[in-house]
Amino acid sequence: MIRRCTFAVAMFSAMSAGWNLPAADEADGPTQQALAEIAKMNVKPGDWPQWGGWSHKNNTPEAKNLPSEWNVDDGENILWSSPLGSQSYGNPVVANGHVYVGSNNHHSYISRFPKAVDLGVLLCFDEKTGKFLWQHSNPKLPTGRVHDWPDQGICAAPYVDGDRLWYVTSRGEVCCLDTEGFLDGENDGPFKAEDNENENEADIIWKYDMMALLGVSQHNMCSCSIACVGDVLFVNTSNGVDESHINIPAPNAASFLAMNRDTGKVLWTDKSPGLNVLHGQWSSPSYGVFDGQPQVLFGGGDGWLYSFDPEGDGAGNSKLLWKFDCNPKESKYSVSGRSERNHLIGTPVIYNGLVYIGVGEDPEHGEGNGHLWCIDPTKRGDVSAWLAVDKDGQPVVDKKDGTRRLQAINPANGEKSIENPNSAVVWHYTGDDTNGNGEIDFEEEMHRTCGTAVIKDDILYIADFSGIFHCLDAKTGKSHWNYDMFSAAWGSPLIADGKVYIGDEDGDIAVFEHSDKMKLIAENSCNNSVYSTPIVANGVLYIANKSTLFAIGTKAEGDDEDSK
Fold first, then answer.
1. pLDDT grade, residue 338 (50/70/90)?
2. How do 416-419 and 354-358 pair as beta strands?
3. What is the mean pLDDT of residues 139-165?
């Protein structure tokens, strides 16, 4: 068994010892920076052990000779495939010979849970063969769809280091698991209350119930792909509205938190969005060091991006460094698809000392306008593009009482938006006249996005929920090209081996040349909706569609041509 690293030093001693992960030489580029960070973990060098692979959440792994084309029907370039549930939104993670992915229980790998039993499941497969090894089973919450939507399963990706795995369950629990399950014949850790010790089930080390212990009221689903630095986990709690979509039942509950990864002890919490949560809070955190200052970045359900000192204030509270309103002040929120105000679902990405984030909404609420931002994280305080002022030019005071939840200003009272002299905006993208016809066509607009940007060689890619795939200059925000996939995109792109991969709801994976000139190489059907993000680990491309996990690569001569 691979033993995990033991941290016998105080919180963030790794930072003081020089483990400032993003402080790697920016000239190395994101792929080399990711490799350097992963090399410090207790995983294999080519693994992709968390959402986005590393702390900057920039999906740019090292790879060579990846297939541009495959066929899931005849097995061309399919190394293996394994069934998932009927709806799969979790992104694959690969570490130490295992592949992990979240789904529901429709395939019923465990006999005591027939497929009629609705569960959120984290599945573990063998990396080389796709053989099912074990699963962690999460029964649905008794409160129903307001907290735990039917059939949705596990929507988050785990973080893996050594023989320990951490993830957020559909029940609003942060769980630490033994990566071997009960296959090792041991019940490890202080938690001994598992239902049984069958070898195909999960061995829980500890778990922390955010709903019971922090009073969180998650909306529809708890989904956060954990970030970790040293021995500290960073978690978005998913605290949100009730079934009316009007009331916030737990405004004083934590939205963001830090906790010790070995014990589950909460170190600090933050409730900044408070009564201004628009819907849910399903963004995942990222971590970087800017001008020597470590920062953990959280996307809030109020549409603000928050940066905190990872150490907190030392008294159990957060220490805010800066905050950024990702919506225009005059924009107004509505639960209908006509809303102009959005919250944050994608993950903030760090590239060359800057932060990138797009606004979005629950896909069930339809398409809408979008904003993509590039932000300088070295400023402090309110670094939004605009400030809200009254008719006399005085700042509009936001009392966090919910009265500004739907709209930051009331134009009828003479309130307006003015430019912020302390703005950290590097650029702001809502669309560009790429074809030069003097108009911003639908295909040239930035729409709502559930996805996360990916950046390499100063070229940024992001897909929006209206099915437009955008390619921009990461330095200026100028559009290079766009491509209409004619189907909604829920996931995020992958840059690897000089190619860019992006999936859509029709089940197609479009493959482009990594370039500021649009060149579509291939489109490959995965025979079912792709709601997740392609990844690469140890030279293999992994794609989860709605019901199947595929391992894709070039088969060596003599390999059995029959995929599993």
1. confident
2. unpaired
3. 96
326: pLDDT confidence band, cut at 50, 70 and 90?
Answer: very high
Q: How far is CA 237 from the centre of its chain?
A: 13
**What Cα–Cα distance (Å) separates residue 398 from each residue in 9, 245, 388?**
41, 21, 9
285 close to 346: Cβ distance less than 8 angstroms = no
Residue 340 per-residue DSSP state: -
Tokens read off for 236: 């978005």
The whole-angstrom separation of Cα 157 and Cα 102 is: 7
How far lies 135's CA from each of 104, 114, 305, 375, 481, in Å? 11, 14, 34, 40, 42
User: What does pLDDT average to over the chain?
Assistant: 93
- How far, rounded to the nearest angstrom, does the alpha carbon of residue 414 sit from its chain's CA centroid? 39
Residues 6 or more apart in contact with residue 322 via CB below 8 angstroms: 306, 307, 377, 379, 380, 381, 382, 383, 424
Joined together, the tokens standing for residue 127 give 């990396």
- CB atoms under 10 Å from CB of 521, counted, come to 15
Pairing of strands 349-351, 320-325: unpaired
Please give the Cα distance from 193 to 175 (Å, whole number): 13
Interior angle at CA 524, CA 520 and CA 530, nearest 5: 110
CA 327 to chain centre: 20
Confidence of residue 26 (pLDDT cuts 50, 70, 90): low
In angstroms, the CA 206 to CA 410 distance is 48
Q: How far apart are CA 248 and CA 403, in angstroms?
A: 12
Residues 6+ apart with CB under 8 A from 143: none
Determine the Cα–Cα distance for residues 472 and 474; give it in Å rounded to an integer.
Answer: 6
| CA pair distance 197, 177, nearest whole angstrom | 13
Specify the pLDDT at position 397.
77
Inter-residue contact 223 to 168 (CB < 8 Å): yes
The reported pLDDT for the residue numbered 183 is 97
d(CA 469, CA 510): 10
Choose among 23, 99, 17: nearest CA to 37: 23
Range 41-67 average pLDDT: 98
Beta strands in 108-172 (DSSP E): 119-126, 132-139, 159-161, 164-168
Q: Are 210 and 156 in contact (CB under 8 A)?
A: no
Write the DSSP symbol of residue 363.
G
Tokens 């939004």 belong to 384
For 412, the token pair is: 């009828």
pLDDT of amino acid 564: 46
- Read off φ and ψ for residue 28, nearest 5 degrees: -70, -25
Q: Residues 148, 140: contact at Cβ < 8 Å?
A: yes
Are the beta carbons of 537 and 520 closer than 8 angstroms? Answer: no
Instruction: Compute φ and ψ for 276, nearest 5 degrees.
Output: -100, 5
What is the C-alpha separation between 34 and 19, in angstroms, rounded?
A: 13
- Which run of H or E residues covers position 30? helix 29-39
Angle among Cα 558, 559, 562 to the nearest 5 degrees reads 130
Residues 6+ apart with CB under 8 A from 252: 215, 271, 274
Which amino acid, 254? Answer: A
Is the predicted pLDDT of residue 422 greater than 50, yes or no?
yes
